[in-house]
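Re-running Putative manganese efflux pump MntP to confirm reproducibility after the cluster update. Everything else is unchanged from the original entry.
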Amino acid sequence: MNFTSLFFISVGLAMDAFAVSLSEGLALKRIHVKHILRVALIFGFFQGIMPLIGWGVGGLFYDKIARYDHWIAFGLLTFIGGKMLWEARESQKCETEGKCDIASNIIVLGIATSIDALAVGFSFSLLPGLNIYSAVTVIGVITFIISSLGVYIGNKAGELLGYRAEYAGGIILIGMGVRILSSHIA
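Result of re-run:
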């Protein structure tokens, strides 16, 4: 996998964390560096560790699924991307109807926003030659940066993107799934 593909997967995965970071920033009257670091470190950590776990579990089953790897990667990424689009739609309804239930425990949010990364890690186990440690580092760092920006933007600019960030993330992941499938079919 080239860096460009990994970059776009990382950005797509980080969109859930970005959306939650925006809402965390909105909840803060005054922002401090410690708020930004706390949110960004937790999201970056979980987004980085979950693909490693998924890769490890997926590696156990590689021999049994190697013939179908591109279909599995396509299915997982398309499912995750579709799930993100659905969640974005629900977030949009939340904003327009004003019935939002926002959790305050950032660790739980870190885990919840990284479940998609677990499935992506499973897909990574199907890619021979992928340096998983480089991949999870890139995912974690990009999530850290995007989450930092999310808290800051949420605090300073209000609802700049909101649910639209999840739409972008879902579209990116579906696009990556289609690219993986088309490269194996062609």
